[in-house]
Specification:
single chain, 142 residues, 5-stranded antiparallel β-sheet, 0% helix
Amino acid sequence: MGTLIEGKGNYDLGVHPDWVGNAGITWAMDPLRVGLRGRFVGSYKECADAFLQAEGGGGVCHQDDPTAPANYSRNVSPYYTLDANVAWTLNSGLGTSTISAGVNNLLNVEPARVYNGFAANSDTSAYDYMMRYFYARISHKF
């Protein structure tokens, strides 16, 4: 039989922590709407090589050659971001207009450094590279 390779809790061609989550809350009272959203990417292990094997209930760096030195590994810290937004809706005889604004990554949290990542020493599929940014939008429905 082949070797079972576990990706959960490890960086294995992508971020695979034990826990990932999004949570948000919105308060609305016409014409105002205010929202807050949090995103969480849990910690995981990154190995110097991409070959991982599950042992003892968690992923560890695996070395096929028992005489070779142990592979280097490190724990990547959890990542939290917070987004906030506000919107105001105006009704008229011409339709409904909505003016909205917000900020993503309110706390300006840097993405975790992932040395095996494909771009910029991190992973674009899990982390926000833009850091804190503001936006505004006007939309209209006829």
